[in-house]
Amino acid sequence: MISVIEAKNMIRANATALTPVTVPLQQAAGLILAADVFAVADIPAFDQSAMDGYALSFAGFELHKTLAIHGEVPAGAPDLSLLQPNQAMRIFTGAPVPTGADTVVMQEKVQVNNGQLNILDDQLITGSNVRLKGSEIKAGELVLSKGKKLTPAAVGFLATTGVAEVLVFPTPVMSIIVTGNELQQPGKTLLHGQVYECNSFQLRAALQGLQIEEVPLFEAKDDPQVVKDTLQYALDNSDVVLLTGGVSVGNYDFVPEAAAACGVTTLFHKLKQRPGKPLYVGRKGNKWVFGLPGNPSSVLTCFYEYVVTALEQLMQVSPVLKTIQVPLSKPYSKNATLTFFLKGYYDGQTVVPLDSQESYRLRSFAMANCLLCLPEEKMEFSEGDLVEVHILPE
User: Fold this and answer.
1) What gap in Å lies between CA 374 and CA 197, rounded to an integer?
2) Using CA atoms, how far apart are residues 307 and 393, in angstroms rounded to an integer?
3) pLDDT confidence of 344, banded at 50, 70, 90?
4) Cis peptide leading into 275, omega within 30 of 0?
5) Residue 191 — φ and ψ, nearest 5°?
6) Per UniProt, which keywords does this protein have (predicted)?
7) DSSP labels for 30-97?
8) Best CA proximity match to 32, nearest among 204, 219, 210
9) First CA to last CA across the chain, in angstroms?
């Protein structure tokens, strides 16, 4: 068995970014830029009105005080005629400022009498209410850097510069294989000896939080050939395969054997931790196989602590789990020299280990907002001790 730190370092050392792909901007939200993006034009591409009002030459206004209104400029207007110093032109937000004008006065701060404009704004200065050409960004300037997450605002910014598609690190293609003869689908009647299959539900939900959708599900009975054939098919069509169950040392635990038969190289099998001690992780080229233990709390713990570690590297995203040091709300004693991942609740000041920590129980996990990481070498923890806490995604 290896330690938690060794396991995570091994995953990080072996996981490399997926090959970047070009996608339409509409499909890029949440992904990470794989290359710098530069502006191909000045934005705005022309001097632009920031208000509904009247365009004018400030020097002409200073000279004439009252200006004759000459035409109007709506947004999207084409070529414009020259505006004379003694004239003003009706203009609307986003419209190009006419040649000869350098200032816009708000419509609320004028009086119009018989086609003549009287300006009431005593704060008006040259350039008021005008967005200058290139004031957002100039042609050739860096729009966004490689490694930037494409938030809604970042997507909008790219669109304003005319970008229609971007090079990004994609989400991996993933598959889930649930193993076990005892599994029954929710909604159906349980027969004696059966349990409801929940692992695929929670894994798909967790993956959706990482923008990984449409994850195919395969069921494999406890038969070595079935597990091997199912894994081979999933490997042929996926970047990452998650299996649940079949990784311990029982007579019906066939995942490590099936992985070896499919040409998967084992990185590690079994960890000094609880829950999730039997975790299996292997690689075949750039493809990853995670054999997660069958118990639901073990599955979700191993997903957040190890699968997510690999996905962060593949997708080049920032750490999904925020790690903080928090005072423990009450004493806790470990009964084994293993790293314990405890379901906990962080209230903003202290963290409390929840009841029902057994690996088969999900009730406490459903109430938890964090995992406490208690190191293997320490057995006794007192109230107020600082402990490492991993905040779970909402």
Assistant:
1) 29
2) 14
3) very high
4) yes
5) -90, 165
6) Magnesium, Metal-binding, Molybdenum, Molybdenum cofactor biosynthesis, Transferase
7) T-EESS-EE-SS-BSSS-EESSSEEEE-HHHHHHHSEEEEEEEE-TT--S-PPPPTTEEEEE-TTPBP
8) 210
9) 32
